[in-house]
Amino acid sequence: YYQSGDLIGISGIEKFYEKQLRGQRGVSYVMKNVKGVVKGPYADGKLDTIPRVGATLTSSIDLDLQKYGEDLMVNKKGAIVAIDPSTGEILAMISAPSYDPNELTGEGKRVSKNYSSLSRDKNKPLFNRSMQSRYPPGSTFKTVMAMIGLQRGVVDTTTTYFSCNKRLVGCHDHASPLNVRGSIVNSCNPWYYQEIRRLMDDEGKRYQTSDRLRETLDEWRDEVKGYGLGVKL
After folding, report:
1. Which listed residue (98, 130, 139, 163) is catalytic?
2. Facing residues of 92 across strands?
3. pTM of the predicted protein model
4. How far apart are CA 21 and CA 52, in angstroms?
């Protein structure tokens, strides 16, 4: 049970583990006379309970990674969630814009005033975008393709531009032509269609033998596996 002034987790990990974190309140039954003077324990203290300190909780958050993510999201709106794919542990969780939690601690009018101010903020700092919002993950594999293309030398960061040719493969509307950075920012499908074609062209040899094409595909597969894809964790 709770009493006025008790601390309680009302959201996130503190709410989820509230029973473990809050501990147990101790109870002592005593006998008093008509004047309210304690005369001793009731039933020799057999009904008393000893207070128990709440458990210690260690999160999986990587402090350095968390700080780095928060720095990246300064003056931005959005979320970052970094997950260890082998364990499912959350390494970083950032929602931006955010607020100083100290503004909502303590008692009295100050907390109410701060909460009211945060609630009216048009940037919605109280809205936890990392947990309460939905964002499409995007074509994350394109970052791998970009790295392979750069390492192979079939594209570079400054001079390689591909147009968003929707006759090759469907795409959404965005600026064109694009360099590597623009292809990732805009998630351009035709850009990566043209890049993989360059990779398969085997350094400009557009008409490869079937055996050489198979070798080229195997080389590409090995490079992809080098990033951990297709490998059981």
Report:
1. 139
2. 82
3. 0.61
4. 10
